[in-house]
Amino acid sequence: MSLKQIAALTNTSISTVSRVLNNTSPSCASKELQDKIWAAARQTGYQPNKAARALKQGAAAPAKLLHIAVVMARVTSEEDPFFSELFRSLEMELLKQGAVMDDMIHAEEICQKRLSRANGILIMGRCSHTLLSQIMQQNKNIAGIWRNTMDFDIDEVICDGRKAAELAMNHLLSLGHKKIAYIGDCSYESRYVGYCNVLFQNKIPLDYNLIKQTNQTKEETDTAFEGLLSGWLAGKVDFSAVFCANDNTAIRVLELLGRQKASVRHSISVISIDDIADAQNTKPYLTTIHIPHREMAHMAVMLLLDRIAKGHISPVRIEFPCKIVYRDSCYKYGTPERI
Fold it and tell me: What CA–CA distances, in Å, run from 290 to 164, 240, 246, 325?
């Protein structure tokens, strides 16, 4: 499959297809068009002609094409923008390394798929012992990429969710906030652990009225935050900041806050984790913790390819640091001053 054929399938120019697949101009096409181009490339098994390029440059031809399957262990890429961006980073890195993404498989489909046909498996998102066992029965070349260590006997690339949560919470405390609400998953979730740890360390008691368990869907976010806000407006609950477990939740919270009068909007700070692209399109812009998904994708692919080549045998764990991205959604306690 050539760039020309992908351009014809997606009704766009060859140059746009090239820029998207090579990531030379991320803003050259809408997200919808980029998705179409990548879907066409994936479905047709597109690979750049590295052999011809190598011969032209006087180098050796590349080794045989490797086929990689990606397992979505916890969510679909459509449900969580962070995983959508991470998935795209994996696609780009595999293409760059001359490998083919054979399939994107959801957890419930594992039993119907023949993973032994792939040279290796990349697992995205929190993976259960049962799911991993099912995968390992078919393929031993595995690398996991997720927010927190799973302590499995496989290669993994992580960015610690507990540390990210603690960084977010300590920023809110530095601004004078002590009544901090939490919206997100609370079950076996390291971000919730980080939230609790910072409160304990600062001798701030947990207020369970401020903790809202959700599956991080729009509907559950609406219910959770509207309940908090109505209680706050009625004087029944007291909070000045909200820590959301991911950007998708925080973006919805900012949308709901945007419907309130300025005195309400400026009384509640919002912070979250991920730093997805849409975090820069909110009003106000979202302060968040950056998870380096491009670097994580690169390292996961390199680890997997090295394992396939028998470059290492023992499990490798690589942890990337997170960092805070200061924007406009956090205020000093008691003032409308953005920090």
Answer: 8, 23, 11, 6
**Domain segments of the chain as ranges:** 1-35, 64-159+292-308, 161-290
Fold classification of 161-290 is Rossmann fold (3.40.50)
Query: Considering the entire predicted model, what is its pTM?
Result: 0.85
Rounded-to-integer distance, Cα 22 and Cα 28, Å: 11
Nearest Cα to 320, choosing from 208, 197, 161, 193? 161
Q: How far apart are the first and last CA of the chain?
A: 50
Distance of CA 102 to the CA centre of its chain: 21
Of the options 3.40.30.10, 3.40.50.2300, 3.10.310.10, 3.40.50.12500, the CATH number for the domain spanning 64-159+292-308: 3.40.50.2300
State the burial class of residue 220 (Cβ atoms within 10 Å of its Cβ: 0-12, 13-18, 19+): middle
Is 161-290 in the same CATH topology as 64-159+292-308?
yes
By CB neighbour count within 10 A (0-12 exposed, 13-18 middle, 19+ buried), where does 137 fall?
A: exposed
Spatial contact of 121 and 156, defined as CB atoms under 8 Å apart = no
- pLDDT tens track, the chain, 339 positions: 578 888 888 888 888 878 888 776 667 788 788 888 878 887 777 776 654 444 344 444 455 789 999 998 875 545 688 988 999 999 999 988 989 887 788 888 887 778 888 999 999 988 888 899 999 999 999 999 988 788 789 999 999 999 999 999 999 999 999 999 999 999 878 999 999 999 999 999 999 999 999 988 899 999 999 999 999 999 999 999 999 999 999 999 999 999 999 989 999 999 999 999 999 999 999 999 999 999 999 999 999 999 999 999 999 999 999 999 999 999 999 876 665
- Other beta carbons within 10 angstroms of residue 244's beta carbon come to 31
